[in-house]
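#data-curation
PF: Archiving a pair of folding outputs for the training set. Convention for this channel: one message per protein, sequence first, structure tokens after, nothing in between. First:
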Amino acid sequence: MLSTRKHSRQLLLATCAGIAITPSLTLAQQDSEELEEIVVLGTPPERYEAGRSDSLTGFPLDFLDMPRIVETIPEQLILDQKVTELDQALRNVPGVSLSDGFGGTNDDFFLRGYRRNTVYRDGLRRRSNFKINTTNIDRVEVIKGPASIGFGQVEPGGLVNVVTKAPLAEPWNYVELRGGRWNDLMTLLDISRPVKDTFGFRAVASLQDAESFRDFTTIKRNVIAASGEFRLTDSTSLGVSIEYRDEERPLDRGTIAVAVPDGTRRVVNEITDIPTSRRFGEDFEIFETEFQFYSIDLSHAFSDNWTLRASVAFETSDSDDIQVRPRAVFVFDESAQIIDGFFADPMNIPTPEPFFDEDTDQIWISRRVDGSQDRSIDATFVNFLVTGEFETGRVTHQLAFTADYREDEETRFFGTTPNTNGVTTPLFNLRDPIYGQLQPGFTGGFDTATDTDEYGFAIQDFVRFNDKFAALVGLRFDEADADGSGPLDSKSELSPQVGVLFSPTENVSVFASYAEAFVPNTSLSVDLDGNVSVTDPFDPENSKQFEVGVKTQFLDGKLNLSVAGFDIKKENVVIGSGDEAMLADGQDASGFEVSLTGQPIPGMNLVVGYANVDTELPDGTTPRNVADDTFNGWISYEVQEGSLAGFGFGGGVFYSGDRFGDNANTWRLGSYTTYDASVWYNLPFSFSGRDESLPTRVQLSGKNLGDEEYFPASGFNNGQRVNIGTPRAWFLSVTTRW
């Protein structure tokens, strides 16, 4: 879909107490919005505004008019919670479960039970994957359920779309200095300037240098983003943007789970004295990436009702990674003769124990060094969007035509070394580790290259019959071509969407919808000689969702409540391999979600959600990492008047139900609950010395206050890669504006 960056209102002042201000809009909105002076007590409520969305349809629909569930995480909530990474922000959305994320280096999660590790940027499916920090985020939109109508090939659980910051119509200067546990230091700068009502620019930058509770771990990442908007005429504007990210962090495979007498597995940190800080890899493990994104957007209004937006964007990234990958787990009794990882008698190797049942048992793992080197990704996006409004009799229409093209190329060398075996190379002792016995070089490997072209055309129409009834209908056509070692047949797919809406009162909507999603069935394989081939002998995966729900607003629109039930089925999933590959039914998911957000009284902000998801694979088991139940809650309040005006505090809780660690459902990760809190005060002065109405904010935040030991995800069915949750942490920040 076209990148639709119609940003919601942003205020010039992020936090202030008892002063008169004017809402600050993006330059593109300044002509279409009437500016009026309002009085704000405490943090302006517009900083939490999340009532409209255009990411799925191409045109904005209010909360009550959208016959789908779209959750929005605004920037102010991210600032209040001191969220620095996308996966932390997603805890504010019910029904999200985390996945392994390639050793903690990528954003990887489940929505409504389906794994989705691709993140969209301003409506475009970003090709490169890494952990996004929140420096350049205006808001995060989470579309629940199949969304092929707007985005092409996607998994049916939904998608995450990050909307980046754009120039504002009023001056904005923001500086933050942040420090936290484990030497986590971060500096953030955000500046926006209008110039003579015809041009505006915004520059955002951050530097972060942090350690971790994990041994020999250092994270360094820098973000620089700039955007500009030119008002060429009263009806035409041009937008340009650039973003650069550079990041270094270890590729950390976490801990492991071992077999225990009851026939299941347990994480070793729960049943032994191995600390959660201990890594089972080496200090040379690293994931390094440089990412650049450029975009040009031209918008033109033909009339008051019809507009055109044309966009071109380019993405490029270069990365290298090297890891020490666990390959197998061995448990021996205390009498087994293993010295520095080598069997004392290679001709008489001891028999491993079937499970860990004595505190004196030895736990060893075999490891392999591998990784992708010189990985290069280049992607091009071209998008067109035409939106309009018209009437046919008493019926009104909001219409969107979209056409988009995407091409991406990827090349890399994947290097490998033999597994350790305790005979010619050492095993690794989890209880008494010896580091430095493996080296970062490769003894083998292979090159891969892929080239993909995708085309899409869609039409959507929101039809308002009267005050009571409305419908959203749409159809999209996609065609995808992939090229590995040779060209493949193109695959095409039609993706419909239908939603109906009934509004018995002006603040209640009842809806039902049907939507589809697809993913091409292409697979990459490597033969014994290292030759790479890509095949697509089957029709694309196809998914269907039926959803029903009710939305309502309370307190004159200050509080939004949505309740939805859904049923998703995936078909045309490839099982088996080679000549035995065939299509079969895939995963099913059903459940319901409840979400409550808003500002019930001045100064208070509320975000609460609960989801129950029942997922099932074709053999009747549950996918690993998916929690049946999740709950999220956050409430904050800032004093509006009196001697404590400007003092604020907030607290939150996140609960994840029990999850399986493998698809066969033979062991569990357990449930967990974490508690967070923040307290802040707006000092009645600015470090800039220019304007006392722009206060300096001092904030102390704590995460996982109960110091819960938990394991967010399993990266492999047999328990060789288990992520470890972050212990109790704190952050102290100082922000100022002028």
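PF: Second:
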Amino acid sequence: MLISYNWLRELTGTKLTPLELRERLTMVGLAIDSVDENEGDSLLDVEVPSNRPDCLSHVGIAREVAVIEKSKVQSPKSKVPKTQGKASDFAAVEIEDPYLCSRYAARIVRGVKIGPSPDWLAKRLNEIGQRPINNVADITNYVLHELGQPLHAFDLTKLNGQKIIVRRARAGEKLQTLDGVDRVLDNEMLVIADAERPVALAGIMGGLDSEISTSTVDVLIESAYFDPDSIRRTARKLGMDTEASKRFERGADCENVVNAQARCVELICEIAGGIASEDVIDVYPRPLTARSITFRPERVESLTSLRVDVAEMDRILVALGFVEGAAAKDTKTFVVPSWRVDVSLEEDLVEEIARHVGYEHIGSELPPSAMAGEYQPAELKRRKIRRALTSLGFDEAINLSFIDPAHDEVFALAATNQLATQSSFVTLSNPILEDVTRMRPSLLPGLLQSLRHNFNQGTRDVRLFEIGRVFAGPDGDELPHESESLALILSGGASEQDRAQASRELDFYDLTGALQAAISALNLPPLVFAEAEVKHLRAGQSANISLADGTVIGSAGTLSETISAGYKFRQRVYVAELDLTAVFEIAEHEIKYTPLPRYPSVVRDVTLLVGRNVAFTELVGAIESEEIDDYQRVKLVGTYEGQNIPAQKRSVTLRVEYRSDQRTLRDEEVEERHRRLLDSLLKKFSAVLH
């Protein structure tokens, strides 16, 4: 909002320069984006917070300046020079919906002469970005920027029946507004109507049929208070953003309705001539009650650490418009001014004092506590997972919990609790963005979006993980179901430290290895991977993830061609997601000390030609089921498919380790044990030594 420095000086007599005002107002919470010189004046571009509608005027800013300089605001005093007749003799006002319009005031000015505004008025409006129209319309805009109260002038002869009715629009009713656009209304919108039709959108914009023109002689000046929520809904639905709607939807000053109207009528009589009615038609069916707050001065120091004299507290609050009421031993009572719609608590008064004393004087210290802080058990487990994955080259992603409904039913859910059985989605009734109306049932949509962003920025080698909550629809009247998940995504080359180029491409084993490392960091049994059909993964390259007891907790594999094509991915993408809620419920292994082996181990490599459907976990299970003496473990060295290998076969190389804890094994003993193991594998899997 643009504020004229010369106008402020008229209201406050400020001795501060525009640049000094910029600094001081910014420090009390009214940030000044810029100060521009304009023909002998300076314009301050004030960034008014959404909860401070009282500062959407020069008088509102002047109050803050007066507190800063310990001066007073010279508010304009209105006195209409010439009056004649009762307003009710010329017009009538009726409010059909007092909940949407608490107050409506109308005053008549007869015999006006419409023409250009005087130079001083046109210049002042031009400075703050308002285009001059005619003297009456310009005066309503001037008072709006002076006092913050939106006003509207109707041509009285164009109002059928010389009557104003404040009512809801009827479904399908139409109104051509001052911008020349035909608006189709519904019964949730509040309109100003005459005896036959709507003539204005309440609190937003007037109608073209009742506007002031050069032939206008008699005018009706409207000043009202409208429900902020109603104005906001109508403005958003119709895509309108006017100076009036900005103020009404944030909360106007209901007690300033008649005062602002009197100021407007005074200027019209002075500039455009005419005779005003002696009184005003003031329909006020639901008067707003004054708010009072009990205030304890010691709360200022306890909440902010600022030590402020009680007299200084009183000065600040009174200068801002708060009226001191009855006082007790340790408490005071302040009546909140009608223009401060944002103040309702004692803490709000403390904030008013703190911002004018200076936020920069607030000390930084930890709040006192008689208890020692500690991590929750789940938080320690999350930290272990993060450390394990970041040590493997992964970066953590943090995405919004809201996603596009286009992802519905695309991804298999990872949760094992009630979340997995829910078919409904959690839909936001008031989303922050129009196309993200779902609470995410999976972490994968956010990670895929992050991956695409990296690709678009030229980063082709990506390893990301995310820990977060996922959601599903509630049962009956219950709250939505929540579960915690871990998701991984990787694509491109396996970049190594101190290497300019990746030595190989990332694959499924990098994905499963990272998951196993994360689980191992929690000191839990290893995960079990079994081939399965998963709807968002490529057929034949997907697996279910299970715990040692067989409980399925997630899936891992290659992203399906359909989803990859939708994101325009040109390289393979591997994804995994598992239910951390189920993982966190598993008891950790007890860690026991074991000495380092005293005797050396013996390693034997074996390469088997087996069917493509034989999994490594099956080979491990078969080896361990033999219970060979002195067997320690087996590791996968590698696999091979291709030239000289039958189409339905693959070559698998295993490394088997033997060791005794009592003595050094002899070669013939190892050969005898290894031969028994090989015979068992060859028979069980119809394998061939390769």
